[in-house]
Each structure stands twice: as structure tokens, then as C-alpha cells.
Amino acid sequence: MTATAPIVEASGLTKVFRDFWRRPRVRAVDSIAFEIRRGEIFGLLGPNGSGKSTTIKMILGLLHKTSGRLSVFGRAPDDVAVKKHIGFLPEESYLYRFLDARETLDYYGKLFGLEASVRKRRTDELLQMVGLERVAHRPIGEYSKGMMRRIGIAQALVNDPEFLILDEPTSGLDPLGTRQVKDLLLDLKSRGKTILLSSHLLADVEDVCDRMVILYGGKVRAEGTSDELLQDSGRSVIETDRLDPEAAAAVQSVLAERGLGDATVAAPRQTLEHFFLDIVARAQSEATATDGARTGSGTAAFLREESTGDDVVQSLLESPSGHEAAEVVGDEAPDDTEQATDTHQVIGDLVDQEAAPDRADSSAAASETEAGPDRGVIDDLLGDGDRGK
Amino acid sequence: MTKIRDFWRWSERVQERFGVRVGLAILSLAVIGGSLGQIALRASSINRDRNAILEALTTTSLMAGDDVARSLKEKGTFEAGGREWGDASLRDASGAIFGPDGRVAIPLEVAAYCLRNEAPAWAPEWLVTQPQTAKLGALSIAAFVILVVLLRGFHELLLTGMLTGGAAFLARSLGLLDLGWALAGIGVLGWSFLLLLRAARTGLSGRGGVRATAQLVLMEGARTGLPLAFIVVMLVVLPLIPLSLDPEAPLRYRVQTFMSWSLGLAFWLAALMTLLLGCSTIATEIRDRQIWQVVTKPISRLRWLVGKWLGLAVLNLVLTATSCVSIFFFIQYLRSQPTAEGLAGREDAFLLQETVLTARAGAFPTWDELDNEQLRQRIAQIEETDPEIRARGGMGINERRAAVQELRELHNSLQRTVPPAVAGAPPNYFEFNGLSAAKDLGGTLTIRSIFHILRDDEHERYQCRFIFDRGDGQQPIAVDQTFVPTMSHVFQVPAEWVDDDGALRMAIQNLAPAAINFDPDDLEILYQVSSFESNFLRAALVHWSKLAFLAALAVACATALGFPVACLASITIFLAGSAAPFLARALYWYAPAEMNEIDFSDTAAGISWVFEVIIHQLAVAMTWAFGAFGDYDPTGSLVRGRHLPWSEVFNAFARMLLFWTGGSLLFGWRVLTRRQLAIYSGSG
Fold it and tell me: Across chain B, what does the average pLDDT equal?
């Protein structure tokens, strides 16, 4: 394998699950093709059942492909020699509850054939990195979900892998931990490591990935760099320092005469979240079948009986703590609260949000993206009538 | 509490220093050398002196005017092994010491009197009288202490010693002496297990997938509920078994009962623990997906499986070593316990030594077999004399086969039937071959027999005579015996009666009023070929090899099945294997009728016959497949004092470790490579 050869190459990759009688039950991955290049962070996006976990499991040799070609480091995925260069963090940390954190890392270090001194040094450093050095002697069975996640991340890194596969790495982590993981990924990338990142948290992917594919119904729906995918070629944005009214008027007049001045003109980026939703909406409009979770049909009937959502909100507002909470929401909510709420609901339906912290992270990230740049002046420049174009 | 914790941490820190460990090791060895070492040396010396005294006393005679006999009679002292033994007390008791033939009638008692002050007063008598056990004990404890020091377990040993010692002291203070011993035994056993486990973990440390996986299994076994429960039960119940022994029973029966119960319990608990842990460690790891994070590391599935098996095998080695060493030393203690007074007690001690705590090989009589020509003639005779068969024009193939079988059994049965001499019948002659080794070893041969007569009333006693042909024109020797039907009887004859070809010829004359008969394996000659100690070691090895195979069986089952089904399958195979010898014996006596004997016009009889055939064939298949597992019965061999040759140990290792274990692991590996370890996680 040459130094520039892709780490992972897939073409026509298909996975069909069969039932007990060997009859095809589900086509989880349907003739997909992609490659992961050395030194990049590659994102794998898609709602539940889109085939991304199946793809990862085939890359790791946990599942056998039905047809197509798949190579990892130029070899078959189940080649043991390949595993020496791979670090893997599954979507949940499946660890031995009777071991403590130190024993866990030591065990995985042994599987990689690391010397005792190397294992000890790396174990110490990793425990410090994930902030578990003070609970290193507690059995993992007593850990919280976030702590399990942290030790899971540590074990994925114990061999200093060339190729790191992370399935929902920030799931269960607090915002600080999430930030640390993103920084870690960027650090690893700067050291030339290759990373495959599968995540439901679109902001995570957008923040760190160089290229990505979006899967839906087992097929690749879009592929490219973040810029390629997120660039909206139909619009222009003029971005500059804040302008006083006179300057704004002058710019407006200049623009009116089709001049450029000091203003920079660039293609505006839409958020990954919007882009993702577009993909899903288009796929749904094409009636593409998905084997994963579908858009929810709202709250279960038994939960809607007797009281309405408004009643609950009202009761919360009437309580002292509820009042305080309502004020906070009022302060932080963007102007288009209703639209944002709708968006989050759709995302929530599309994306499996098992853990409450994930949902909070997702909402926070989305709100941050929405509220990010100061669009006031630009909106003024474009005028109300141009908004939404 | 704080002070204890501080002391604990301090002792942990102290043991980390190399110099401290070396110092502790030297100190411990010095203490062991000064105590147990001294006992071992004194026991050897006393044993040498005892042998010299016995040789002097048993070969001397007043009639022949021997110096030893005369000196003993006149002064009460005599010389043996370069030393002078005895005192005036012996002279005073010379009337009881010498028999009417002028020989020493009670040499053992005289030797015991002479040696009464040779052992240190503080040394346990049961150790002093057994030099081999004293040496083994000293070596075991030295190894134990070295392990404690090297593995930094001194403070834990101290704590365990304090806790169990305190509990034992309390029990003894309350007058519960046996319970005190049992509590101390639980502490020693528990700590020994933990120490050996730690040693095993240290031995498996280092990089590499197989060793890492094996080490993980050891931790799983010692830290998770189910296997730990079995281990704890074993370590607690073993020291309690002596409490259940009947102190009134003859010593040999107590020893046999203890050996049978303790070894049986240790094996069955270890076996069940192995099967459950073996299934659990594979099946739950697959179910709970920990395996995802293992097979995505550079370890092949075969190495992973081998690592799992190795961990289970090493865990069983630790358990076997712990249980067997404790059982062995308790047997050594038990054998030194006093027997009943008088002749019955002396016979008890003799039989314990000669039939239980020994390792004897056996030989059965050589039976005469009917050759083909004889069989043909007898079949022809039946065909001629039976008008029905003659009318049919002779026997069919199946009928002829059945007749041959019947003739052979009848012929063998007649050889095992001794008609009563009162009816003028001559004695039956038997020849035992392959006894050259017994002749070379010298000593005595034990004749064992179980006879049946009339209605096998166990309240009756009958007479028979064994007549031995000594060859070389010597006069045959007759030994009269009384026997109780269905009971095992033994008596001894000198090995020199075996001729140079290794054959012993013997006749049995029936002095009872009715015919005597016996089963093929109920007339046997036994002779000692090795020591109980080495036999015990070999039995422990066979014991472990069976457990190691069970580990592979459980691992293999769990690669293909979920935890409950894998447990069910592996436990079924284990039970079938254990019961196979009994099943084989049942099958020897039972077979469904031949097809041509069934009247198929009777539907019920037909269906019943079909079921019988199916069940019979299943039983035959089970016996064929798993019979060998049950045939290896090291506990039974030990309890019966049977020699377990090294060839059988190697045979067990080759069969169970090489073929069965290897085959099971290859099966598991094949399943695992074909099996997809992840599942579909979508909802379609």
C-alpha cells in the first residue's frame, strides 16, 4: 500500500441481512462507494437505519459484506494485521464491568502487544486526558455513562492508532467533554491520523470533518467536502465590520450602482443541519424506503390524555422554579423561536436521541449556529423582502 | 479503623522495597527450616532407626541363640543400626515380648517404645511418623511463604491469619475443637486460593492476546458472582467434611469416605463452575458486545478462544492445587489417627495401609475362550438335537449369531462357577498372568474376591479353600477362608509364589453346600506398584485434564449458542459422559428383542419395540461418544487404592487435552469465524 493510497476503499458495497431461512430480510447497505483518505477526518452521516453502523461494522470485520469490494489499509477488513493500526469507539462503551479503568486500558494495551512500560505510561496519560485518574481503581460497573464514554475513548487511543473509527464519540459527554473530544480529533488530524466519524450531532461533524458522506436508506445521498456540500451558489453575502447608518446607506447606494468597495463577497454557508434536512426531505419525497427509525408520529396517545401540552407549560410557569426557567428560555431564545422549535422537533424525530444530554447538546449547538453571526446590518441591506430567498 | 488502614498502607509500602522482601524471605525460610525442616529431618532419621530396629527384631530368635534376642532377654537392650536401644523395662517385659517360638512377638510395640523420646516434644506425632509427608509439608509451606513474599501478600496473610485464627480460637475456647480446626482450614484454603490465583495472574502477565485473555478470565472468575459462589462453597465446605465423618467407624472407612466426598465435591463443584463460567465468558461477551472491542484489536478469533480456555484451565489448576493439597495433607493427618484397640484395630490399620493408602495394580484370571471350531461343533449339535430348528433346515444368520453369543457367555459363566466339593466336584483352576513385576517387587499379593451363593443372604457365612501351586515340585499351599455372599474379601500371599513366567496358578475348592459363582471382575490379584503419594499426584492431574476438557466444551458450546442453551448442552454432555460407564453396564445386560421375534400384527408391541430400539441406539451412541470421559475415574482409583499408571495419565492428557479439547476449540473457532459478531441494528 502506497503512502497516498486511501485507508478505506469501498465500491459497490452491499449488505443484505437474511432471516433464519436465509431469505433476504433487509438491504441495510446498498451498493455504496466511498474512500477515506489518509490524514482526513471523514464524516458518516445519516439517520438511524441509514446503514452507517453497518458500514462501520463491515470496515471492522464484525459483519461480512454480501457483495462489493471493501479494503482497509489495502487488505480485507478481517485481516488481523490491519487491526493493529485501528482504534475503535463503538456507539456505546461495551466494557468489562469487573475491571477498573487502569486494568481495562492495560488489557487492551496487551491485546495490541504493547510493552508493560509503554502500557503503564499510556494508561497514566490517557486516564489524565479523559479525567479519570482519580477514579482509576473503581470498577467500571460503577461508572456513569459519561465516565464509561471517557474510558471508551481512552481505550480507542491506547495503541496510538493510524486510523480511528468513532461512532457517536460525544454521546453522553457534557459540553466540556464534547469540546475536548473535538479538540482531540483536530489534534490527531494535525498529527496525520485518519479519522472516521459517525455522528448524529451534525454540529460535531460540521466542526471537524474534512469530507463526509450522507447515507439514507442504505445509499449514499451526498458526498464531498463540507464546503462543497454546504455552499449555496444561488446567493451572495457581503460581510464587513459593523457599519453606521451613513456608511450603510453609502454601501447601499454603492451596491445599488453594482460597485464592490471594501466589502468582501463570498458564497454563504448554510448550516449542515439545514442541508441534512433537505437531503432527508428529498429522499422522503422520492419515497425512498428506510429501515431505520422514521419520523415520529408525535406523543403517544396515552401521554396526551387528560392534559394538553399548554397545561403542562402553564403549570410549570406558575411554579417558582418554572417561572425562573421560563425567564431563562425567554432570554436565550432567538427571535424566530417557533421556527427553531419546529426544526429541533424534526431533527429530534429524524435522529435517534436516546440520551437527554445528546438532545440538549444538539439543541444548544443548533441554537448557537442560528444565532451565530450578527445579521442585522445585512438584513437591513437586503431588505425584508429579500429575506428567505 | 484508621489505625488499621494506616497499618495496611504502611505494610503495602514496606513490601514494595526489594530489600524487605529478600529479608522476609530469608527470615521465613529460617523459621520453616528450624521447625518443619527439623521435623522432616528427625522423621527421616526416626524412620531409618525404626526400620533397623524392626529388621533386627524380626530376624532374631532365642532358640537360635541370636545376640539381639539374648541381649534383649537378659539386659533389655539390643543393638540395631549402630546404636543401642532399650532399657531394663524391656527386660522386665520379656515374657510378653517373646513368643513360645522364641521370636519377638510384638516388634512394632518394642520399636515404638525404643523411639518414644526421639521426636521433639512439640512436633505433631502424625508428621513425625510420616517422613515423606513432613518433607512435602515443609516444601509446600516454604513455597507458599516465598510466594507470599514475592507477591507482596504478607499483610493480607497476616489479616487472614488474624481473622481465621481468631475465629478458630474462639470456637476452641467454646469447646468446639473440630469447628475451630474447620474454621482455620477455611482461612488457610481461602488464602491459599487467592495466593495461587495471584501467582497465576502474575504468570500470565505480559503482552500477547492469549495471555491477556486468560488473565481476564481469571479476574472474571474471581470477581463475578456465579463462579465466585462455586469457589467459595468449595473452599468453605471442604474443611467442614471431616466434621461429618463417623468417629466410631473403622479408620479405613473414614479415610475412604473423606477421600471420596472431598475429591468428588471438589471435582463436581469445579466442573459446574467451569461449565457455567466457560459458557458465560463467551456467550455474554458476545451478547453484551464486549467482543466488538476485542476482535477489532489484533487478536485472531482462535487465539481469543485459546486464551479463554487457558484462563479456565489455569483457574482449574489453581482450584485443583488448592483443594488437592489440602485434601492430601488432611488424609495424612487422618491416617495417623488411632484405630480401635485389639485385633480389629490392628487389622483396620493394616488394611488402611495395604488396601487404601497404596497404589496397587491388579490381574484377573485368564479365561478360556471357545474357538471357532468348538463353536461350529456346538452349533451343529444344537441344530441336530433341536427338532424345531432341524425342521426349519438350520439356524438363520441372526439366530446363529445369538446362539454363538449365548454359548460364549455360558462357557465363561461355567468357568466362574465352583460346584460344592461335598458333591465330589473337583476344584476350579485359575491362572493369573503378567505378574512378573509383582514378583520383582517382592512383598505380598492381595487376593480379592466377591462370591455369590444361593440367595446371597448377607447374614450367612460359608467356607472355601484357595490352593496355590508353587511349582518346582513344591507342596501346594491351602488357605481356608470364610466369606459372606456379596461382600468383598481379601487375604494376602507372598509374591514369591509367582513363577518365573509371571504366572500364579490357583484352585478354589468350594466347602459350602451349594455352588459358588462370581462376576468376571470379582476375582482379582492386587499388588503394590507405587506409593499413595505419587498416585494422588497422578489422580490430581487426570482430575485437572477432565476439567480442562470441560472448559473447552463450554467454550465451544457458547460460540454457537446463547448462555442458557450452551449451559444446558454442555452440562448434558458432562452428565452423559459421567454416567456413560453405568449406562454401558446397563446396556451389557439389556438389549431390545431381535426384529424377527416381534409380532408386528400387535401394533402396541411394535411401537414399543421401535421406541426401545431408538432409546437403545441413543444410549449406545452416548456411551460410544462420551464413555471415555466417565472411564477416567481418578477418585475411584484412589479410594480403592488402585494404581493409576503414568501411561493412563498420558492417555488422559492425549485424549482429553489433545483430541477432545483441540477438537472443541477448532469447532468453536470455525463457528466464530463464520458467525457475524454484530447484528442488524435497524428496525426493518
Answer: 86
Residues 6+ apart with CB under 8 A from B288: A94
* Residue B476, phi then psi, degrees to nearest 5: -65, 150
* Cα–Cα distance, B299 to B301 (Å, whole number): 6
Taking the C-alpha atoms of residue A88 and residue B656, their distance in angstroms, rounded to an integer, is 38
Domain count, chain A: 2
Measured distance CA(B232)–CA(B237) in Å, rounded: 8
Helices (H), ranges, A61-137: 80-83, 101-111, 116-129
Q: Are residues A77 and A25 in the same domain?
A: yes
In Å, what is the CA distance from B46 to each residue of A249, B41, B57, B81, B349?
A: 120, 9, 16, 11, 20
Q: Which of B220, B297, B306 to mutate to test the interface with A (most CBs of A within 10 A)?
A: B297
Q: CB under 8 Å to A214, separation ≥6 — which residues?
A: A45, A46, A220, A221, A222, A223, A229, A276, A279
Does the distance separating the beta carbons of B207 and A113 come in below 8 Å? yes
Q: Cα–Cα–Cα angle for A360, A364, A369, nearest 5°? A: 150
HSE-CB of B149 using CA atoms within 13 angstroms: 19
The angle at the Cα of A42, spanning A39 to A48, to the nearest 5 degrees, equals 160
State whether A209 and A342 are in the same domain: no
A210 shares a domain with A121: yes
Closest to A378 in 3D by CA, of A270, A248, A202: A248
Which residues lie below 8 Å from residue A81, measured CB to CB, with a gap of 6+?
A75, B298
Q: Coil, strand, or helix at residue B546? A: helix
B581-635 pLDDT, tens digit per residue, is 888 777 777 777 777 777 778 888 888 888 888 888 888 887 887 778 888 889 9
Per the structure, the complete domain to which residue A117 belongs is given by 8-226
Q: Do both A219 and A254 map to the same domain?
A: no
List the single residue in A with minimal CA-CA distance to B211.
Answer: A110
Pair (A61, A141) in one structural domain:
yes
Residues shown for chain B? 684
| Strand blocks (E) in chain A | 8-18, 24-36, 41-45, 67-72, 86-89, 163-167, 194-198, 211-216, 219-225, 237-239, 264-266
Q: Regarding beta strands A163-167 and B428-432, do their DSSP bridges make them parallel or antiparallel, or are they unpaired?
A: unpaired
Beta bridge partners of B480: B465
For B210-270, give the DSSP string: HHHHHHHHHHHHHHSHHHHHHHHHHHHHHHHGGGGS-TTS-HHHHHHHHHHHHHHHHHHHH
CB distance from A293 to chain B under 8 Å?
Answer: yes
Three-point CA angle B130, B321, B360, nearest 5°:
50
Final residue in a domain of this structure, among A192, A226, A260: A226
pLDDT: which is higher, A284 or B162: B162
User: Of B207, B213, B218, B281, which to mutate for an interface test with A (greatest number of A Cβ within 10 Å)?
Assistant: B207
Position A293 in a domain: yes
For B33-71, write each residue's pLDDT tens digit: 887 788 888 888 888 888 888 888 888 888 888 888 889
Which range (A48-62, A186-200, A295-309, B569-583) has the least confidence? A295-309
For residues B435 and B502, the answer to whether their CB atoms sit within 8 Å is yes
Report the gap between the CA of A197 and the closest CA in chain B (Å).
16
CA distance B148 to B131: 26
Which domains are delineated in chain B? 1-152 (no CATH), 372-413 (no CATH), 421-530 (2.60.120), 534-674 (no CATH)
Q: Do A292 and B220 count as a contact with CB atoms less than 8 A apart? A: no
Residues of B with CB under 8 A from a CB of A: 205-209, 211-212, 215-216, 219-220, 223-224, 288-290, 292-300, 676-678, 680-684
The answer to whether the beta carbons of residues B451 and B509 sit under 8 Å apart is no
Question: Amino acid letter at B522?
Answer: D
Q: Chain A residue with minimal CA distance to B210?
A: A111
